[in-house]
Amino acid sequence: MNGYLADTHVLLWWLLEPEKLPRRAANELADWTVPMRYSLVSIWEVAIKTSLRKPGFDVDPMTVRDKLGAERFAELSLRPEHIAHVATLPWLHRDPFDRMLVAQAAVEKLTLLTADASLKRYGRFVRAV
What we know:
The chain has about 130 residues and is α/β, with parallel strands linked by helices.
C-alpha cells in the first residue's frame, strides 16, 4: 500500500466534524507515518455541491484545499491514466466523483477511505470507515 486516499465525505468530517469520524479512521488519518492524500476531484465535488446549495456543502473549496495542505495531506492531481481507468470499472456505483476516486486509488495503489460502504464492492483497495 502506498498510503490512503480519503474520499470527500471523510475529508469534510476530518476538517469540519471530526466527532463523526469513527475512532479507527481518525487514528489512521492522524498517523503521520502513513502517506495521506486528497484528490482534486474532492475539491471539484465540494465546489459543485456548494454551488448547487446541497446541504452540508456550504464550504469554500479553496479553504478546504488550504486546510488539507496544512493537515499534511498531499494533493493528488487528476491524470489521464485515472480518467482511462474509469472506463474499466464495473457499474457498481453511479456517482462520477466516487468512480473517479476509486479509479485514482486503483491506479495509484492507494487505499480509498470512504464513508460509502457500497464502494467496497470495487475491491481490496477500498475500505469503508
